[in-house]
Write a structure and sequence with these properties.
Length: 406
Amino acid sequence: MELSPSTSKRNFNSLLWHAAFLSLAQVFMDVDTIIPAMLVDAGGSAIQIGILTAIMLGGSSFSQLLYAPFVSNNHFKKKFLLIGINSRIFALLGLALMLYFSSMVDESMIIWMIFILISIFSFGGAFANLSYTDILGKSIIQDTRKSFFSSRQVIKAIILFFAALLAKKIFNLADYPVNYGYMFFIAFAALLISSLGFWNIKEVTPSRLSVKSPKHFFQLITTELQQNKKLKYFLGYINTMGISIALLPFVILYAKEFYLTDSSDTGSFLLYKIIGSIIAGSILFILAKRYKYQYLLYGSAVLAFALPLLILLATEMPSFVLIFFIGGIIYTTYTISMNGVLLEVSGTENRTLYTGITGIGNILPALFPMAGGWIIHQFGFQVFFILFMFFILCSLFFIYKLDCKK
């Protein structure tokens, strides 16, 4: 059955609905500020922050490599999309209830429960992302995709800004752990509403790629790596530059240890990170037809390299709002460039395969936060920042080799 204009329009609106409420949810469950600050307030150590960051950013993406053979072998993927997002919804509800009623929970169990629920949330998201990428590519007529991405960016920018202002106020209504309970309950409600968009999607076009077995899947990966030289450099890029989005959770710990920041400061960090993200996304939206990915890759690498220097040079706590502002820019430019370059190096038929292959590119982002937590514990923040800057420098080689033209 072919995709009709009416079905495409229905899916277009459904995916926009999801994107709008997902943007709202993401502010209240921000992985760079809210979640690490919650763990620190619960008594978490640098090593525990490293492990949790690895689960959220690297480990969940790496798990896509394991999910991909199973998901790819099913031509219709909406059911997997719903399984993934529903697991995230229940994990957020569990976090909200656990934190709000934490007085009834043994203190020694709280950190364990945070790890379990965040793991369900993260791995559920990775499972859903494989199906989402495939459904997005085949459920909207190609001529309207650019309009979809543009509309999504505008809606996301508006919602992110006002949601960040709201989150800052709600965050200050109470102290730990009740304030986090409020935040995660709002995130749960927003994600629940966003899932209605997925329920409304009409998946009519089957995916063409079939995977006979896990062995066959890894044979396909080997073939793609041999035939597509750019894929190797792309994996090198996300293995090195990918650690840039793992830095801010450690900045939260750094600020709390050296400047004794509180919930009010965390709310400000979140707000300025969102503002940086909105400004970067808006500029790239306006210049969408003018910039090349190559320049975007270099620009984000330079900013990521400079960020640890700014942290070490900071002499007072207010300087950190600038650091989180730049962090928001880095996150947005990295996300946009990574997704754009992935579309360049992949084709229509192998998009799910390539999304799974990107799990290989998350080996270092998965290991770096865990190693980083141990390094901070043993040697301090300076050694950690130097190692971070070394890997960012390595990313410049892969950017040069990618040579993105579009």
